[in-house]
């Protein structure tokens, strides 16, 4: 059975935090796939990062169902609390803030992912507690 | 709920007794159609794959449920993975495939462990030669499109390509491939396993401005108001969106049939219903849905790649109160143009929400240019 490239990229990212140029170069030699193609794949999928990310990656759901349940307020809150904009990482390298398309949690909105783990029915109070727990 | 009833390998036994042609005949008789949005008869899709001669064939289970507001496949993956896996084995044995893939969206990583356990258990119990491998998506909405899934599994950017050839004739690695959605595969097993199987039951993911969002099962033709009432609207509903791609219509007493929904300039799709209350602006909805499409466009064809950006810019201008009448005309024209000229289903449906909103809520757009 063939190696599924995106499964492989996921494994690397899980271990190293992001897909660095070095990691992609190494994989390119191993699989005999041109680096340009690997880079193309790595930048196509929104869950792959080719730049170093914060220790905690927050991905706030931007879908209509979460919007209808107050996700815009949460976005404002997180930006203020972390003092960064969407797509940025805090100076101390602790948090990265992103928005994601629907994560299928419309039955318990608003929702977000924190390092891939789902958090639902969010409000400012809950977010404060979650942020405080991120050491 | 019919969808969570487990077939417990009875369906596979029936399928093995009937043989490929018998299975096709039964699925045809029981009117099993695809639940991913297109309602294509399963028996036709499978027949092409059976008839195409090849040393290797594949089955792909599309578990890349990404349509905003849709979470029915998640429910199935949690509550009835056994029947899903049985459905995959039936598909593979029927068309003569020895390998199957489940393309699971990256955001559902939490379901991975349990799914793996169920796969090895069912494979062992069923004594099948079919192997099932899970491929994890990595956050690309477009990978729910069948040719994009193929590209993604093959290790490329998940960009769709022109059909024909259709996957049942030439699909994954150039071999005949059957691609079915999670809900479809469960229905296939249930149609074979249960004598009282009801093909008219559909799953509805109801969310938005409601107190009890969730997955509900109703018959085709159930009244919209009945479906929404079950989820207990918070405040007075104004509109419903059939996901992002299906467009929006006024909330009213209407039977939910594909024909009726089509009359409202909408598409029924995968049973997604996002309820919008009277306090929410349709323009805000248009804005966030347009943002979604600019983000998720795969970038391959120009109308979708560039057009979705221009739609968003126009909406920004209109929301800022700087729009004129000609901007509304341009918005409509551009939306139609993208619908007619994009390569794949994503691009073609990316402006349904604009077209239907302008058709069903013209006042809210007119209001923008009066300011």
What does this structure look like?
The complex is a heterodimer of chains A (135) and B (371). Chain A is an alpha+beta fold and 135 residues long. Chain A contains 6 helices and 4 strands. Chain A folds into 2 domains: 5-44, no CATH class; 56-133, Glutaredoxin. In chain A, strands 2-1-3-4 form a 4-stranded mixed β-sheet, with helices on one face. By secondary structure, chain B is of the alpha/beta class. Chain B has 15 helices and 9 strands. Chain B has helices at 10-29, 42-51, 72-79, 81-95, 112-126, 146-153, 182-193, 224-230, 258-263, 282-296, 302-319, 325-341, 345-349, 352-360, 362-370; strands at residues 58-63, 99-104, 131-136, 177-181, 201-208, 214-219, 237-241, 248-250, 272-277. In chain B, the strands form 2 sheets. Chain B has a 5-stranded mixed β-sheet. A 4-stranded parallel β-sheet of chain B has the order 3-2-1-4, sandwiched between helices. Chain B starts with 9 loop residues before the first helix and ends with a helix. Classes of the chains: A alpha+beta (135), B alpha/beta (371). At the A-B interface, helix 1, helix 3 and helix 4 of A face strand 3, strand 5, strand 9 and helix 10 of B.
Labels describing this entry:
heterodimer, A: alpha+beta, Glutaredoxin, 13% strand, B: 371 residues, Rossmann fold, Ubiquitin-like (UB roll), de novo design (two linked rop proteins), five-stranded mixed sheet, four-stranded parallel sheet, 15 helices, 47% helix, 14% strand
Offer a concise description of the structure.
The complex is a heterodimer of chains A (135) and B (371). Chain A is of the alpha+beta class.
Topology, element by element:
The complex is a heterodimer of chains A (135) and B (371).
Chain A: H1 5-16, H2 21-31, H3 35-44, E1 56-61, H4 64-67, H5 71-82, E2 95-100, E3 112-114, E4 117-119, H6 124-133
Parallel strand pairs in A: 1-2
Antiparallel strand pairs in A: 1-3, 3-4
Chain B: H1 10-29, H2 42-51, E1 58-63, H3 72-79, H4 81-95, E2 99-104, H5 112-126, E3 131-136, H6 146-153, E4 177-181, H7 182-193, E5 201-208, E6 214-219, H8 224-230, E7 237-241, E8 248-250, H9 258-263, E9 272-277, H10 282-296, H11 302-319, H12 325-341, H13 345-349, H14 352-360, H15 362-370
């Amino acid at each position: 059975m063939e190696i599924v490239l995106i499964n492989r990229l996921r494994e690397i990212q899980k271990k190293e935090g992001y897909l660095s140029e070095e990691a992609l170069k190494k994989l390119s030699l191993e699989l005999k796939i041109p680096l340009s193609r690997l880079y193309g794949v790595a930048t196509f999928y929104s869950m792959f990062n080719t730049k170093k990310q914060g220790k905690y990656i927050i991905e706030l759901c931007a879908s209509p169902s979460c919007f209808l349940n107050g996700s815009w307020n949460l976005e404002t809150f997180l930006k203020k609390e972390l003092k960064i904009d969407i797509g940025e990482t805090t100076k101390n390298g602790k948090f990265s803030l992103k928005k994601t398309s629907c994560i299928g949690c419309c039955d318990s909105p608003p929702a977000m992912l924190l390092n891939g783990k789902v958090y639902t029915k969010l409000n400012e109070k809950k977010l404060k507690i979650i942020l405080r727990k991120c050491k | 709920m019919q969808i969570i009833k487990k077939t417990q390998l009875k369906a596979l036994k029936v399928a093995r007794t009937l043989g490929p042609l018998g299975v096709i005949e039964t699925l045809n008789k029981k009117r099993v159609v695809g639940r991913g949005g297109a309602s294509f008869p399963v028996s036709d899709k499978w027949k092409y794959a059976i008839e195409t001669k090849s040393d290797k064939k594949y089955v792909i289970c599309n578990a890349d449920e990404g349509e905003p507001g849709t979470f029915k496949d998640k429910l199935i993956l949690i509550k009835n993975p056994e029947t899903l896996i049985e459905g995959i084995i039936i598909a593979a044995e029927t068309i003569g495939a020895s390998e199957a893939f489940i393309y699971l969206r990256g955001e559902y990583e939490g379901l991975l462990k349990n799914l793996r356990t169920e796969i090895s258990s069912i494979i062992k119990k069923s004594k099948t030669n079919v192997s099932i491998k899970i491929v994890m998506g990595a956050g690309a909405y477009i990978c729910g499109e069948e040719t994009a899934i193929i590209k993604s599994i093959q290790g490329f950017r998940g960009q769709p390509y022109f059909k024909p050839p259709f996957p049942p004739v030439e699909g994954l690695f150039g071999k005949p491939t059957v691609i079915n959605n999670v809900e479809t595969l469960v229905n296939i097993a249930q149609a074979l396993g249960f004598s009282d199987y009801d093909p008219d039951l559909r799953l509805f993911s109801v969310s938005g401005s409601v107190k009890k969002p969730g997955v509900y099962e109703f018959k085709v033709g159930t009244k919209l108001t009945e479906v929404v009432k079950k989820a207990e609207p918070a405040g007075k509903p104004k509109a419903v969106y059939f996901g992002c791609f299906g467009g929006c219509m006024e909330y009213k007493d209407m039977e939910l049939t594909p024909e009726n929904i089509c009359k409202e300039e909408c598409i029924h799709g995968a049973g997604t219903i996002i309820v919008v209350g009277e306090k929410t602006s349709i323009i805000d909805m248009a804005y966030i849905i347009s943002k979604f499409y600019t983000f998720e466009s795969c970038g391959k064809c120009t109308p979708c790649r560039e057009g979705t950006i221009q739609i968003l810019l126009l909406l920004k201008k209109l929301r800022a109160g700087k729009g004129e009448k000609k901007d509304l005309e341009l918005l409509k024209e551009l939306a139609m143009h993208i619908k007619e000229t994009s390569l794949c289903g994503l691009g073609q449906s990316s402006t349904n929400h604009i077209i239907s909103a302008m058709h069903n809520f013209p006042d809210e757009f007119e209001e923008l240019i009066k300011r």
